[in-house]
Specification:
It is built from nine helices and ten strands. The model has no long low-confidence stretch (mean pLDDT about 90).
C-alpha cells in the first residue's frame, strides 16, 4: 500500500498540495481528477520522490528509497525514454535493470499498439511516444503504476481499446493511479475516484458507493465541484448584453 500522511508541497507564491492524506492499496484502478493546477502531477511526482515535500509517504510501510523504488513505475506525457534508442534497445535496458520486467507484456503491447521495434523512439509521433511510455510503465514489473495524462494525442478508439486490455492484463497485486481529464471515458474502467481541488482532496469515492447512491461518476464530479449548469448561458448573456 502507498500511504500519504499530511503531504504538503509549496512552490514560490503557490501551494500545490495541502495536507493530503490517502491510502492506495494493492489491486485498485484509481482515477485522479481535477482541473489544471489542482495538484495531480505534483502528487504523483511527490510519491516518486521527484520533488521535495513536507509530510510522509510510505510504500508498504517503508520510506520510498532506491531499495524499493522499482515497485513504482511512471508513464508521463513529458516522456522518460531515450529518444535515440529504438524499442528493442529499451527492452534490453529495462530487462537488465528490472528483474521483474515482463517480455511477454512488452511484446504484446507493442503488437497491440502496432509500434515499430527498430525505429528510434524520438521519431515516433506524439501519440506513439505516449503509447510507448505506457508500455514501459506496464512492462517494468512494478506493483504501482502511475500514469499522468498518458494518452494525449491518441484517438478515442485506441484509448477505449487500451482500457479494456488494461483490465485484462493487470494482476491482482497491481495498482494503477491514472490522472486524466477524460472522466466519462474512464468511468467504466476505474474502481475508485479521487478528486483534487487547489491541492486538497475534496472527493474520494468507489464505484460501488456510486452505484449504491444511484449516481454516475460525472454526477459526483459536478456535485463535488459545485458545477453550475447555467454557467455558459450566464456568460453568453453577460458577453452579449447591450449589443446591437
Amino acid at each position: 500500500m502507498i500511504e500519504l500522511k499530511n503531504v504538503t508541497k509549496l512552490y514560490p507564491g503557490a501551494r500545490a498540495l495541502q495536507n493530503v492524506s490517502l491510502q492506495l492499496p494493492r489491486g485498485e484502478i484509481v482515477g485522479l481528477f481535477g482541473e489544471n493546477g489542482a495538484g495531480k502531477t505534483t502528487l504523483m511526482k511527490s510519491i516518486l520522490g521527484f520533488i521535495n515535500y513536507n509530510g510522509q509517504i510510505t510504500l508498504d510501510g517503508e520510506p520510498i528509497t532506491r531499495k524499493n523504488i522499482a515497485k513504482l513505475s511512471f508513464a508521463t506525457s513529458e516522456h522518460s525514454f531515450f529518444p535515440a534508442l529504438n524499442a528493442g534497445a529499451h527492452r534490453e535496458f529495462y530487462a537488465a535493470h528490472f528483474e521483474t520486467f515482463s517480455h511477454k507484456r512488452f511484446q504484446g503491447l507493442m503488437e497491440f499498439f502496432n509500434l515499430p521495434a527498430n525505429k528510434p523512439v524520438g521519431s515516433f509521433s506524439t501519440g506513439q511516444k505516449n503509447q510507448f511510455e505506457v508500455i514501459l510503465a506496464l512492462s517494468q514489473g512494478a506493483d504501482y503504476i502511475l500514469m499522468d495524462e498518458p494518452f494525449a494525442g491518441n484517438d478515442v478508439f485506441n484509448r477505449e481499446d487500451f482500457y479494456r486490455v488494461l483490465l485484462g492484463i493487470l494482476e491482482p497485486h497491481e495498482t494503477v493511479l491514472l490522472s486524466t481529464h477524460l472522466i466519462e471515458e474512464v468511468s467504466d474502467f476505474i474502481g475508485r475516484a479521487i478528486l483534487l481541488n487547489r491541492g486538497t482532496v475534496v472527493g474520494d469515492v468507489t464505484a460501488s458507493e456510486l452505484e449504491e447512491q444511484g449516481k454516475s461518476l460525472m454526477d459526483y464530479v459536478k456535485e463535488t465541484y459545485r458545477y453550475r449548469a447555467d454557467r455558459v448561458s450566464r456568460a453568453l448573456s453577460d458577453l452579449t448584453d447591450g449589443e446591437v
